[in-house]
Amino acid sequence: MSVSTEISLPEVLKKHFGFTSFKGNQEYIIRNVMAGNDTFVLMPTGGGKSLCYQLPALILEGTAIIISPLIALMKNQVDSMRSFSEDDGVAHFLNSSLNKASITKVKNDILGGRTKLLYIAPESLTKEDNIQFLKQVKISFYAIDEAHCISEWGHDFRPEYRRIRPIINDIGSAPTIALTATATPKVQHDIQKNLGMLEANVFKSSFRRSNLYYEVRPKKNVTKEIIKYIKNNHGKSGIIYCLSRKKVEELAETLKVNGIKALPYHAGLDSTTRSTNQDKFLLEEVDVIVATIAFGMGIDKPDVRFVIHYDIPKSLEGYYQETGRAGRDGGEGKCIAFYSYKDIQKLEKFMQGKPIAEQEIGKQLLLETVAYAESSVCRPKQLLNYFGEEMKGSCENCDNCLHPKTNFEGQDYVVKVLQTILAVKEKFKADHIASILSGIKSSAIKSYNHHLLDVFGSGNEKDEKFWNMVIRQALIARLIQKDIENYGLLKIDPKGLDYLQHPFSISLAEDNDYTDTDEEEENLAGPERPGTVDEELFNILKNLRKKIAKQFNLPPFVIFQDPSLEDMAIQYPITLEELQNITGVGAGKAKRYGKEFMELIKSYVEEKEIIRPQDMVVKSVINKSGLKVYIIQSIDRKLDLEDIASAKNLDMSNLLDEIEAIVNSGTRLNLDYYINNILDKDHQQEIFNYFREEAETESLEAALKELGEDNYTEEEIRLMRIKFFSEMGN
Description:
- The protein contains 35 helices and 17 strands.
- It is an alpha/beta fold.
- β15 and β16 form a beta hairpin.
- The strands form four sheets. It has a seven-stranded parallel sheet, with helices on both faces. A six-stranded parallel sheet has the order 8-13-12-9-11-10, sandwiched between helices. It has a two-stranded antiparallel ribbon with strand order 14-17.
């Protein structure tokens, strides 16, 4: 595979995908794959994971086998790859959706050397016919997408994924690349161990999203607090998550009675109601959706301004995903969770009756959630630590940073914790260590004779909760770590051993006490939208957008997205040329919808006697406009969307947000080259006809329900919706 040193990857990238530069670690990952090395990639959604195996697959001799869990996801990827090639045979998928003739066509293309990427589900990979066929194929490498499905500690565990390695061995060895968007160190280790790639080169990208504000509040008068928050953020879109369907229904009804436009959304509703409710949310006919934690909405609305958890979720992974639905356009995103330990006890009860191993895993994940909720440490720092990422400094954009607890000297406490962990030979979990220090003679302590240790009761002036807090902050300081093999067992980090030899001053903060709920939080959700936006004009523009949307029978954000209106409320464009320079507004959209907006802004500027600061363009606006041009040019060159996203450090969802903004602003984009690679013509027509003839709103969720979540992915429908708006609206 010396080919990797003989070619210019940037040139190949430009040739195949039209990108001029790689994003993040992409080039290093690709070179590693092409050098024949096993590779593990941890990259948040939209970071450009797909390119990491797509580009080397096109370059290397043979066919790359891409193992993927979802049929719809495969179709999406295949259509995408075909859009970059003159030969549809460049990419295929093998799964249960194909008929005999299609399977024969796929196999002929592969054996004929036309196919560079073959997408296959693990279930299909296990079929003897497919195994025997693949033994005849020259395989360049194996790529396991959504690799977190391998681990029982992952949020989407699939047993069939654990059979991949033996089957690969049976077919024939080749380098392996495993990719996932959400994996804690434990999950990562599980993946690598199961795939026999513990020596793989590992590439990680950051989980940090600086525009999200995190806050945890005590669970008291929750409904009243939520109503107060929403009314103080009038007109903003939000999602509220509840533990049960009953609570979803109750809360949605209560919000409506109190004058808030809200609707419920859960698996117990019929598909038509769910679709209608989501459509109304996307069309801005309602501001708030109340949903169950158990039922993922897969919402793609870019301007969700707040995500509230009425009940705390069962894992930090789930919490991170759900809060990630806020502020996908890079704007304001407030993430507020109401916490009570009673919620944790409810979730523990739900686990009863499940296998013991599953209960143990569930309990450990819940303990991580408790630690996050109760700790007074910077919240993004805790979340990043959970995913194995170290964050320097504090975010200054969460409740713990904006309202810090009084710190105290923690050196002696940390030393005691480290000494106790060593005294029990690093074989016990946090609760056990806390019990030893506080002198609790529990049955577990006695059974190990730990009440006879010198360290037993050495910290009995403090309770178990205090010692657990010290342990958590020592974990974040990387003085101790949780054992990868036996998750939860505390081990001393080399940094901790050094600390024992040379202790130094360390500042600790008491945990939040959610039993005292008398204090009212005046600053409900951190900083507001930047002051450069003219709020009055922004609201007037939103009303105009809604009026025009009704005239055209289109969702408001198909006309212009919020970032475009915000940009207008900063720059006050009154000519066509100025409007075209607004973020998310192209020439076509400016001409189609811009006249009324320009007239309104001009009238507003004259009435308010505003001096437009055209010579003081906000820097971020320039970047946004540049991004718009780059995306349009890249699509004109038929670049892979994953490559466009990775080149600009966007995830796919954010890229689609930008593309929607461009299309909504009147620029007509032709994504057929990409869509044709992931959807056949019949399926494209089905989705297109749905939006043209059946859909009452642009709701993605409604489309998914109507067209079938098993038949299409959210991304496929979203792309077709963009195609529909581009062709019908522009």
